[in-house]
């Protein structure tokens, strides 16, 4: 096989393209022959860069004798390094694997480099800076240059490389040229894919893609997320108690079907299956093999089976009283109550020095937010996949948002500690709701301690006596509000309609409650919120469809009676008032 064919094999292996599809466009009759100019044009489309000598060698090697090129034989020779024909006759035969030592697929980092050790050390320093910058801001070297590389050849011009390299603002143009010159090819093009592999730490044998890079970053950021890390059976039981209380799952429902004779014991395999089903609910936990084995040994019966009823009695504290009695037998008994901190982990507890340091960082951020009256929630919500519902963003997004919204010169270690403080172990995302609640006193994102209805909350429900008392209090506020308005109207000769009619564009006599309160507040600035609510309830039009609207003309008529007790004077101007 000639050197030119090997170069073509290396090129198409690097770009993962099928060269025969390009030749077929010039051969509508499928004769297997095209002109030399068409043959060379197809090689250019594939991205194969050959010297003039190699081009002439290919044209002579596959010449058909009539001035055309046998591209079909050429394609077979090229594909011979990757596949075998007639595999249906020998299906057990494995196709060959291209030898990377014979192609230009030799690792980009091994093919590119400086002979000068000082320049090579400088490059490594610059690579680490680019790697840190991309990790902090969620960038990728490959995605930065894909706009210039429409056919995925993996190369760009030096000018394009210098223009779009994702780098910090303080990096000098000389440093960018150092990186570009290190990956400069013979055709004066920069191999940005090789630099991307070096930055992301992707070897030549590993798949090249964003999914692989993202998976690698997530494994670095949150190792072992979503798994209970308890070692002993007691620790696992405590975690399961919290999980079953949170998900409202009774594990006995998943295990009693295996106990046909009601002997309270099942096999170890049946116990594992039932426990797996009970933990598979949304918000459940994942147990390792060692933790499941610890539970099996803890509740193993003398006959070798597992006493599942004893296990369920210990973890079903959300449904039992803590005694031998069941809630079915004693429905009025009290069950153990848990606070939000026991069920929902909004933040993590760090080690001693790290916890002290992160508290200082949060105090500095809180002071900065208070001084500048910053509202952080809108920016964080835009990065939330469900517009604020998931309450989490990725660690890279959190770092970027801290830089954009705060503008504080935080150290990298401080940012990492804040991320570790609010990272959810199950998802690997940072709980920005809890972060904003801790650094912004005016935020309404503070979590509520109450999780479920209990007897105390039910006892606080409004009764008929409470409703009657509120009605009497509201009537007292209404009488006081009307008295205040009457005094204001008489003293200053005010017309209530002048404050309200501008809100009624269609002259229907109806306005919203907010507009009504605005107009009344303009009439009497000292009117309290209780007085406004009483007036709103008194003049709400009960015949109108929701939402509630206010009959402002009735209110204006009641106020105008103080100044104009006689109506329609424009029709009878000689009429005397009372």
UniProtKB/TrEMBL annotation:
Q: Transmembrane stretches, by residue range?
A: none
| InterPro entries the UniProt entry points to | EF-hand-dom_pair, EFCB6
What is the protein's name according to its record? Answer: EF hand family protein
What PANTHER family has UniProt attached to this entry? EF-HAND CALCIUM-BINDING DOMAIN-CONTAINING PROTEIN 6-RELATED, GH12158P
Signal peptide region? none
